[in-house]
Fold this sequence. Notes:
By secondary structure, the chain is of the alpha+beta class. It folds into 2 domains: 6-125, Aminotransferase class 4, branched-chain amino acid transferase, N-terminal domain (D-amino Acid Aminotransferase, Chain A, domain 1, 2-Layer Sandwich); 133-286, D-amino Acid Aminotransferase, Chain A, domain 2, CATH 3.20.10.10. The protein has helices at 32-36, 54-67, 76-90, 163-174, 217-228, 273-286; strands at 12-15, 18-21, 39-47, 50-51, 95-103, 117-125, 137-141, 179-183, 189-192, 196-201, 204-208, 233-236, 248-253, 257-264, 267-268. Strand 7 (137-141), helix 4 and strand 8 (179-183) form a beta-alpha-beta unit. The two termini are 29 Å apart. The mean pLDDT is 96. The structure holds pyridoxal-5'-phosphate. Pyridoxal-5'-phosphate binds at residues 43, 165, 191, 194-196, 213-214, 216-219, 252-254.
Amino acid sequence: MTTQPFHDRDGWVWMDGEFVPQRDAKVHLLTHALHYASCVFEGERAYGGVIYKSREHSERLHHSARVLGFQIPYGPEELDGIKHELIRKMGFEDAYVRAVAWRGSEQLGVSAKSNTVHCAVATWQWGDYFADKMKGIRLMVAPWRRPAPDTAPCNSKAAGLYMICTLSKHAAEDAGFNDALMFDWRGQIAEATGANIFFVRDGALHTPKPDCFLDGITRRSVIALAEKRGIEVIERAIFPNELATFSEAFLTGTAAEVTPIREIAGMAFKPANITEQLLHDYSALARRKNA
Ligand SMILES: Cc1ncc(COP(=O)(O)O)c(C=O)c1O
């Protein structure tokens, strides 16, 4: 992983219909997205040069944009081709892929209906989000809650929704934790700042219903993998006072993959069989090694 800032790296990005050198991939200061968060994005991962669930990510990007009231001028199939062409052009095998779409700089006010819509894809080489996985990570409880569906467009992967994630992640890091567990507006357990959460009790998986946060692509893959193993999966409202009743806990996400949790706000969890099984199953699936 390079530590060179993104604006000063060699290589290419795809932007508004063409490949441009990464150093030249710029937007204007008065871009609506920068001021009003009229922006949606995807985080994807390529393994061995192939993006896991590329089409689902492209379709979710389109869905996210529609929720914010704009249409991306490149279809999901076209985006799939662009993403893979970019990875090939960069010579990457295992990489993170960031697709993004946003409103441009024609109008700068709350209303932006006539602004042009822009789209770009960037990629960089990337290893584990949380290194040394089975050791488990530590979460604190976030100081911010996921908003209600009538408070924010929570079924869109919209940039604006990440303001409270960044604040919560910073608070966790400042307190010596790896990440933060966010509750929702009702006080139910929701997810981490960039990943969904699962718990284990008596051999069954419990995970919050994604009714006010992202129903992750990895989350859905892990549910399918668990069911294939005959593990019962219960999607339901989970309350903080239940935390002590769970034996294992883990996060799922494109970046996190399956990441075991060893502590939530002083409560200990022991990454064990079910977590390890699903970690390996997901890794094999994403890397297409399970055939
Ligand atoms: C807030 C949030 N929740 C959950 C996820 C997991 O989603 P996925 O598995 O589609 O990457 C992500 C990552 O995209 C996220 O940012």
